[in-house]
């Protein structure tokens, strides 16, 4: 009985950055980490010569998603900062490649996750970093420190 | 690829997606109907894996890209168990949204696999 009670007391539930909606966010990021990394690796292995820049950017976006997934899932201020920086890089990436793919469609064939602002992925890559940054801002450190010092 | 198996997975996933979303809107963790319908869709995916192995040993292969087809198949097979595990760690209305989203991923990936196997999305409906 006592152990159950102490477990309940030490669990900072459903208000922190890594809880509630944060968990759904982590899962969406994990899906995109798999999708973008697999796509990048596959493209580099099978048709590297066709558009090396686009395929390296594909792989790069995959790595960004992997770091974001880990940073969003981990507690603590350091990971919070990593998450903010990574999501900013992600937003810059999707905007830059989005514009570049429209201006120079030859250098960016439509098969990277960020091409045309992620149109092939229902524009989720465009909205994801914005939603993520909103979530991080909503759960800033001063609010979660209390939970961590529990 | 078997037309009815693809249709079965799509139908069950669609149902599960709605059931999970209903749970989420009612601010509840995934209920029995939602979780078991996702489990049923996953059994369909298991059948898909087995059927793909059987068809490959009989000499059939994806029209477009065999490697990409198998990459999709293995990934889509692993995602639902991972999602259910993830949603059990913290059972809230948010886990219902996660499982609903997983069904969308399954639907998209099964359609893409049909396209890779037949050459066109419509191929799945005409074979």
- Largest interface summary: A-B, 16 and 19 residues
N-to-C SSE string of chain A, H for helix and E for strand: HHHHHH
Going by helix content, strand content and strand pairing, the class of chain B is mainly alpha
Strand content of chain A: under 5%
Would you give an account of this structure?
The complex is a heterodimer of chains A (150) and B (127). Chain A has 150 residues and is an all-alpha fold. Chain A contains six helices and no strands. Helix content of chain A is 72%, strand content 0%. With 127 residues, chain B is mainly alpha-helical. Chain B has five helices and no strands. In chain B, helix 1 runs antiparallel to helix 4 and helix 3 runs antiparallel to helix 4 (93-118). The radius of gyration of chain B is 15 Å and the shape is elongated. Classes of the chains: A mainly alpha (150), B mainly alpha (127). At the A-B interface, helix 2 of A face helix 3 and helix 4 of B.
What tags apply to this protein structure?
heterodimer, A: mainly alpha, disordered N terminus, B: 127 residues, mainly alpha, elongated
Structure, briefly:
Chain A has 150 residues and is mainly α. Chain A has 6 helices and no strands.
Give the helix/strand layout.
The complex is a heterodimer of chains A (150) and B (127).
Chain A: H1 2-10, H2 21-47, H3 52-73, H4 77-103, H5 124-138, H6 141-148
Chain B: H1 3-25, H2 32-57, H3 66-89, H4 93-118, H5 123-126
């Amino acid at each position: 009985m006592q152990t159950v009670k102490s477990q309940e007391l030490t669990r900072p539930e459903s208000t922190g950055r890594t809880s509630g909606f944060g968990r759904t966010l982590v899962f969406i990021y994990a899906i995109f980490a798999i999708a973008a990394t697999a796509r990048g690796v596959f493209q580099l292995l099978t048709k590297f010569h066709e558009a090396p820049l686009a395929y390296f950017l594909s792989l790069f976006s995959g790595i960004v998603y992997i770091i974001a997934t880990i940073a969003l899932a981990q507690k603590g201020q350091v990971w919070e900062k990593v998450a903010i920086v990574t999501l900013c890089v992600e937003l810059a990436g999707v905007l830059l490649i989005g514009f570049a793919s429209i201006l120079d469609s030859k250098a960016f064939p439509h098969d990277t996750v960020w091409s045309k602002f992620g149109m092939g992925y229902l524009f989720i890559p465009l909205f994801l970093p914005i939603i993520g940054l909103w979530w991080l801002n909503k759960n800033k450190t001063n609010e979660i420190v209390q939970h961590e010092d529990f | 690829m078997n037309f009815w198996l693809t249709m079965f997975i799509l139908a069950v996933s669609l149902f599960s997606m709605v059931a999970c979303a209903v749970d989420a809107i009612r601010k509840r963790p995934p209920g029995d109907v939602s979780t078991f319908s996702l489990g049923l869709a996953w059994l369909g995916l298991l059948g898909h894996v087995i059927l793909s192995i059987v068809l490959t040993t009989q000499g059939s292969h994806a029209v477009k890209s065999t490697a990409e087809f198998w990459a999709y198949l293995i990934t889509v097979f692993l995602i639902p168990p991972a999602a259910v595990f993830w949603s059990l760690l913290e059972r809230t209305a948010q886990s219902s949204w996660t499982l609903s989203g997983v069904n969308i991923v399954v639907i998209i990936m099964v359609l893409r696999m049909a396209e890779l196997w037949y050459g066109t999305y419509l191929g799945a409906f005409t074979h």
